[in-house]
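Archive maintenance. Older records in this collection stored only the sequence; we are now back-filling the structure field for every entry so that each record is complete. The fields below show one back-filled record exactly as it appears after the update. Entries are processed alphabetically, and Major paralogous domain-containing protein is next in the queue.

ARCHIVE ENTRY
Title: Major paralogous domain-containing protein
Organism field: Mariniphaga anaerophila
Length field: 247
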Amino acid sequence: MKFVVPFSIIFLFVVACAKTNGTFVDKRDGKEYQWIKIGDDIWMAENLAFLPSVDSAREASLEQKKYYVFGYAGDSADSAKTFQTYLWNDSLVVPYEKYGVMYNWAALVDDDTADGGSLRGVCPCGWHVPTDEEWMALEIALGMNPAEVEVIGQRNSGFLGYQLKANYGWDNNGNGIDSVSFKALPAGEVFGGVGFLHEGERSTFWTATPGLFGTTVWTRSVYCCEFGIVRVERDKMDGFSLRCVKD
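Back-filled structure field:
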């Protein structure tokens, strides 16, 4: 006796089994990362933390690779990974574990020319630095009006900042709802050799897309006290966080 499984049941089973999150291991250092699916793309659900060397936040360069760990001023990558400091809320943490690494543009590119394709840069094998357009796709998938994705500055459509921010760790009652488990945390920034700024208040992410000027690149930022997400050009000498996208 034949038993025929209705197509609708098969379809529901396939949909139910389609994974929207998981983990992978960066073979370079053995570090495990979480990932999530947003729209058609698979994103890292935490900041990249690959750290071949480390620099002081007062060291800036357009040409030389610079790697930064919040609060750390030494020159030992091993020490930077276990270094402890107090955050804005007086909690003692290991910034490397909480926030990952911030990179300047030279470190981000990591001698990769892209050659018209995706930019792997400092990302693990099989992953790449997201373009401005891939960030736009994420924004549309989470409810931003497509007519607003190319707007420069703060864009409140879809409340993207509120959706992407973690529901803990932000100053001034600025936590988000973390609607898709992106878990954006306020790692702050490294500003042009001045030092670490905005920890507790801001998280800024690189894209792979050059700006309109020779030394700028498009970025995304979420702030503690804003519901939207900021799209602006930032200088290649600055240090920001990175979320890679799967090839």
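Update note: Residues 7-246 form one domain. The chain is about 15% helix and 25% strand.
Entry marked complete.
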